[in-house]
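Handout, page 2. Input:
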Amino acid sequence: MLDMDFSEITGNLTLLYVEDEEPVRLTAKLRKIFKNVIVADNGLSGLTMFNENQIDLVMTDYLMPEANGIELVKHIRAKDSRVPIIMITGYVDTDFLIQAINLGVNQFITKPILLKNLMNAVRIAIQGFVLDNLAEKSRRQELQLLRYKEKYHSTQQELAFLKELKIIRNDLNHIKLETNAGKTIWHAEICYVPLDILSGDSYSIREIESGKVIFFISDAMGKGLSASVTSILTTSFVNHLIDEAIGRGDFDFRRFLKSYTGFIKKELLAEEIICAAFVYIDFHAERLDAAIFSMPPILVLKSDGELRKIKSNNLPIMKYIDSAAIDSYDMSGFGKILIYSDGLNESPLELSEGGLYHDRIEEDFRRASFKNALYQSFTRQAATPEDDVTFIFIQRLETDWQPLMKLTTGGSLAEVNAATVDLQNMLEGMGLDDGFIANFISSLTELLVNAYEHGVLGVGSELKQALASKGAYDDYLIQRQAHAGKAISVFLSKFTKDGKQLIAAAVKDGGDGFNAAKISGLNSDESRFTGRGIKIAKTLSDCLLYNRQGNEVMMIKEIPDKIF
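Output:
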């Protein structure tokens, strides 16, 4: 049974179905699922139909007269590198699979065709198509937003916002912090949703040395240009102080605060104020130092279920007031930490309910497994925000998880694909929902392909693009694969946290890795990756974390209660 969202997606797509022996019953079912189904009975007519119509998805048999499925795919890919393609075949042959995969076939279906298997293949095949369309829609919306601003010239606003984003630093982006001999994992996620292009909120997450991290959120009171300038000054100087201290190797939290407040007070107008939270955590020593300047209380959920608040201990930063109290806390029992600006808790709820999100935030924080879950709960309940929304979600994970499967593959694409099948069979054996499995395997497949191409074969995006433009990429992969000599390991685990069941998959390759902290938003380090695989994996999972070296990635996804 298709879920509503998937039905709505397929109901807007045009399918090209190429099959020399058309199964009338299957075609009739496909016409009920897709907006339009165009049928061709051989490869040549299939190519003609593709060239003459706007096709969203191709499903083709392999053995056909005139031109077989591989030849059809070659011609389609010469014209369109993005359209999803599903290959139907009556047998599985390694050379055939490698050739088809290198040509860009997204999924395979074996005969006889079962509708359930076909729909799972369609679901996975169109994930990238849907994400690309969403990204394009988002880009159009962002462009429209940039064009419409009454107070400032659009180009100036864009440059100012890019400047704000440039000075923000996040040293823990997609990075897991391991403590207690690897038995404990800490990770931090940021949610930053400015109300306007020129934002009064800003943040940075800076690692002073291994496991010692400053989390910083500032909220410059006021709107528009003045608040934005103060925000830029604040974050820029904070990062400057931290960079200098790291360079000297002598960071001191109290001295750092004194230097910052001394600087920013001189730059403030008489009526201006800044609210800010500075949290310095030593994850190895499990100690938290906090200097909170009239910000909302930091929420802490302890391992025993107790919810604790760390309240503001300083007045807001003003031109003529000098105070910087620091309170220290033992965080050995802390499970989750939430640092946020007042744009979150002071957002009004929907008019029919009344009140502020302040009334819901504690319970939602208690239930949320990850940052996205908290933000989704916020957007479901709150009206359109009237201020910037910024929060940092810090979480502890104890890795005493139930192991489900461990696989080690060789350095061939066929072995990677076989591992994917084994993992899918494991998930199906657990009785999980088809949609959950499809999303999980789609994410995992992207991570495995990244590990194969970049870790095992050492292929960077520039080389890949150069070879592909010459039509030499397939031959290069085969040549590299023969001498790779590196393996990929996959670990599948299950665990329970805060009453929720979650599945974690870790993929490790023998490559040199990369600096995962440089992944910005949905874009990766362009010198090493194109970022599409990471984008898909991040979108379809709840949490994506790399080790320090960047050659191991962990994907975590919550299992909704309803799918058992």
